[in-house]
Design a protein that fits this description.
four-stranded antiparallel sheet; alpha+beta; 8 helices
């Protein structure tokens, strides 16, 4: 059955066009729960750690986990904690690209464009990461193990899911004003959780950076939206009104 999610009228008035999201519910749920080791037994995972030359490191808050290059030949898997993928342009301006939590994957399969920009992943709290040799993942092993094929399948699905998320972010960032960016972001959170009550998964300072807007301007717009009855706010918990 196709689930159809529509922006509410109060939000539609603030956007240049009505956006309708049509998602296959079953496919969406399946994609949301895909991890690198989905459908791979624990004992098979242990064998793969050895086969793929996996190593684990713990990073403190503020430490650089990985810097992107033209060929990194490794995949990073977040085991616990939180990290952020940043971009730094030629002028030294830093932008938040993505938030990486448990089971998030980054590295070689997700190489980013523009040689003039610098991309890197930084720990935002104590974060444990498993690194895997990318070549061992994409090369077919001699035994043609099922779990090897399953990992490749998982990785492809995660790549597709990340592409969807990036497209959603491009839509948010393409909005012309701080208000429209904020509403598009909150509506997207509501769609993901199937609820009008959402929790912003980062600080408001980080959110302003994520939306590439001024923190003070975003705070003013949040207050205006409250006054207009479009939402209510308590800390990072937001409730979108009917």
């Amino acid at each position: 059955m196709t689930q159809e999610f529509l922006l509410q009228k109060s939000q539609i008035d603030d956007l240049p066009e009505k956006i309708c999201y049509n998602l296959e519910k079953g496919d969406r749920i399946a994609m949301e729960h895909i991890t690198l080791f989905t459908n791979i037994l624990p004992e098979e995972q242990e064998r793969m750690r050895v086969c793929f030359h996996a190593r684990e490191d713990i990073f403190r808050n503020g430490e650089t986990i990985m810097e992107y290059s033209s060929s990194m030949n490794k995949i990073g898997l977040v085991l616990y904690g939180r990290a952020v993928l940043y971009c730094c342009d030629e002028e030294g301006n830093e932008y938040m690209i993505d938030e990486l939590k448990k089971d998030a994957v980054f590295g070689e399969p997700f190489l980013l464009p523009a040689d003039s920009q610098h991309y890197y992943v930084t720990a935002e709290e104590e974060t444990k990461v498993m690194f895997i040799d990318y070549e061992h993942v994409i090369k077919r092993c001699e035994k043609a193990c099922h779990h090897h094929s399953q990992m490749v399948s998982n990785l492809l699905q995660m790549t597709a899911m990340q592409s969807r998320q990036q497209m959603a972010r491009i839509y948010v960032l393409s909005r012309a004003t701080t208000r429209k960016k904020l509403l598009a972001y909150l509506n997207n959170l509501s769609i993901q959780t199937h609820s009008r009550s959402v929790q912003i998964p980062m600080s408001y300072t980080a959110l302003a950076q994520y939306l590439t807007v001024d923190r003070s301007a975003m705070t003013r717009e949040m207050k205006n939206l409250e006054k207009e009855g479009i939402l209510t706010k308590k800390g990072r918990n937001i409730c979108l009104r009917e």
